[in-house]
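We examine the record.

___
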Amino acid sequence: MPVFDPPYDLVTLGEGFLRLSPARYERLEQAVHFDVHVIGAGVETAVAASRLGWRCAWLSAAGDTPLGRKVVNKAREHGVDVSGIVRIPEGRTGLCFAEPGSAPRPTRYFYDAEHTVFRETAPDALCWSVLAHAKHCLFFLTPQETRPGALETLEYGLRVAKEANRHIVVAVDEPADTAFSPETLARLAPFLEQASVLTVTLRSAQTLSGDAETPEKAAEKLKSRYRGEIVAVTDDACHTPRAGMWRAAAFAETTYQDRAYTLEIIDAGGAFSVFSAVFLHGLDHGPETALRQANAGAALMHSAPGHLSWFTLEDLHAQTEGIGTKLQR
């Protein structure tokens, strides 16, 4: 057996949920049948990087129940190491009910995630030795992932990563319908100050650094404010629930840009998580390649149901080389 030093290219931290979506664009009140998908920023980013060939682990707590095992098994199916997940008998798995929209009705998400196993498990009960053996440690900050209980665990993990001198990566996503509280924003500052790589949605960038009309300006402002090596900012301008545009820019010592993707949206879930994972993976080949591949990955995520990536490195190359829309045999 080969011995890796460190054993993982990427370790992510966070909660796993089950998303239930009505079929055929029904309203939740109408629904009889539901599609079930595993979601959660930690598992989404780990799966995306694993499918590109990285050795990935996901650090979490999960219920030792059928629902908890379903979440953990889906990560394992994609090659993610789940040996560091603490299993809690009768632990509760959070639920998310997604009501797909079609213009003029927007897509809506409803979370049932109070008292979940991840939020109820004491931070020092997690398997932190996994995080200490990672090349990159990714912390995903959203209003849902930073609820009471979860934020304390992320803060504990940040201290472990700093003490182990790990490469810290931070992703921030503040959806339009859910804002960070001022108290939470103040507690996010240490994450942003320690991040070597920072990926941020444009809405989040505007919250963190004031008005910024474009991803290019937002990336430059955040890079000047925080001490990280590189900042990438995404813009998912969805004109309707079924159509929109995706673009992003990055800033290190200079600005990096890429094409804008016109989208026919099947499901927008997981796009930013996948962007963050692919961008980090691509940095081995330079910021320009990282941005190009991450944009392609995020665009592809809109083309299939669910929050988990099912594409390969070959799919990314097909998009970046301009052959992704052609018939392939």
Summary: Residues 20 and 97 are 5 Å apart (CA to CA).
